[in-house]
Amino acid sequence: MPPRHQAAYDQLAARYVLEVPRAGGETTVDPDYTLDVAELFGREAPLILEVGSGSGDALIAGARAMPESNILGLEVWRPGIGQCLHRLLEDPLPNLRLIEVDAAVALPTMLRPGSVQEVWTFFPDPWPKRKHLRRRLVQPPFADLVWQVLAPGGVWRLATDIDDYATQMQRVLGAHEGSEFLATQRAPLRPITRFERRDTEVGRTISDLAYRRR
What pLDDT does residue 148 have? Predict the structure, then answer.
């Protein structure tokens, strides 16, 4: 983590990053723990969850645009959290929180069923090599977890710059009995990042997908 991001982490983590009880690893969560969202944010409001918030581009954009919503990011990469917090030094956002946790471990127990209005999964690790495809996040077991925490009518928004991952996402979500296809238009609040600009320059296609929980 660059020193300026570490300094931001040291200064702001207590305010923005929730420390949860662990189950033996740094990005695990005790299965007996259930997050009290109203206590975390100090209010009752619709919850938007980003899985893999990275350096916080979408998280911050969402928190700015939707002050009426609670915006929660789950991220395993602490340097990304540090970079996000560095950006919050001059732009504090009271409706944003982060947890350093593996979403696949946390979602079965940490969030109450039906408690989330939207889930965002933007540019998850593509694991492009064939032998690593099973490591991709968007698989049927993870889809089950997302539909579990989404409220009826809630929306899962995804994006990827890998064509065959987009195909996999469509296959997984399209086959799930709890999902209803919505659109392939760009997510309304998803910002254009420097990585996306680079992808566009080299001719990669950006695929956006949205599905609703029936």
Answer: 97
What would the CATH number be for the domain defined by 3-213?
A: 3.40.50.150
The mean pLDDT of 4-15, rounded to a whole number, is: 98
CB 59 within 8 A of CB 123: no
Q: In what order do the strands lie in the sheet with 207-213?
A: 96-100, 70-75, 47-51, 116-122, 150-160, 207-213, 179-183
Strands in 13-82 per DSSP E:
47-51, 70-75
- Told to judge if 102 belongs to the known catalytic residues of this protein, a careful annotator would answer no
CA torsion through residues 131, 158, 193, 124, sign: negative
Can you give the pTM of this predicted structure? 0.96
Would you kindly state where each structural domain of the chain is located, as residue ranges?
3-213
Amino acid (1-letter code) at residue 60: I
Among the listed residues 91, 125, 163, 164, the single catalytic one is 125
